[in-house]
Every structure is written in C-alpha cells, then in structure tokens.
Amino acid sequence: MHKDPFLSAELGLFPLQPLLSFPLCLAVRVASGAIAKKILKMYAGTEILAYVSQVHKVVLPEGVVDHETVTLDQIENNIVRCPDPDYAQKMIEAIDGVRVKGDSVGGIVTCIARNVPQGLGCPVFDKLEADLAKAMLSLPATKGFEIGSGFSGTFLTGS
C-alpha cells in the first residue's frame, strides 16, 4: 500500500482523486501563509514580499528593484506583479505572444523577507532555508529554488 491513501489502489478510489485534492491543498497553503504573514508582521515586524522578476526571456535587471524600499503597492500595481511598470508591460506582451498560440512560458518569482527574527527554524534538519525549499519545490512545475547567490554561486571560487 502506498503511504498516500489517495494513491492507494486498495482503497478503490477513482484515479482522479489525487488531482482533485491539489486545489484544496493550495487553498490551505494560501490561507495558512496569509495568517502566518500577519502574525510575523504583528509580533516581529517581519515583512514578506514576492514579485515576478522574469517571464520567459524578459528579465528584470539586477538593481532595478530596491529590495529595501519596494512596496506591496508597487508589486500589486499590475497583473504580472512586477514592481517596474516598463518591465511589467514587456512581461505582459511576452505572455500574450505565446498565449494566442495556445502555449505557455515559465518565469521566476523573487521573494524578499525583511526583519526575519534570528533563530527561526530548527538548527539542524529543519532550517528555515530547508523548509522554504521544501515548500516551494512541492508546488507543481517548480524546478528550482535559490537563496542568496544560489545557482550563480557555481561560477564562484571558494576564496
């Protein structure tokens, strides 16, 4: 028997059951995240923002968005959630260009966490970075996760 009862043939559930459970899981994650975000803001002054920094070949250049001052209003100002209006328009055009052909493209979401309290997470196996990676990589279609220099760190030396 599989450890996930929805995938277990012994239960006799129809094959689409795992697919139908995903929207519920996503709704629970969104609601839980919104509550956690409010609690962290209220008790620790922590602010968490996320914005789209790349859609297909349209890449928001480093330094265009100041991570110290960008606001939720700037991010929420357009449908693609890019804080720079010029690049937001380019991203919308890139999406529309493939959408009319019945295709889709990928992108990158950049997350900013300000005033995160020291010691958040367990120091060995459940470090905050590990928990974030686990949460993000469990989303369908997510293929990468990086913190700090992330993937570009492969181009650096240890000295």
Automatic annotation (TrEMBL):
Keywords: Amino-acid biosynthesis, Aromatic amino acid biosynthesis, Lyase. The keyword Disulfide bond does not apply. It comes from the Eukaryota. GO terms for molecular function: chorismate synthase activity; FMN binding. GO terms for biological process: amino acid biosynthetic process; aromatic amino acid family biosynthetic process; chorismate biosynthetic process. SUPFAM superfamilies: Chorismate synthase, AroC (SSF103263). Pathway: Metabolic intermediate biosynthesis; chorismate biosynthesis; chorismate from D-erythrose 4-phosphate and phosphoenolpyruvate: step 7/7. Belongs to the chorismate synthase family. This is chorismate synthase. The lineage of its organism: Eukaryota, Viridiplantae, Streptophyta, Embryophyta, Tracheophyta.
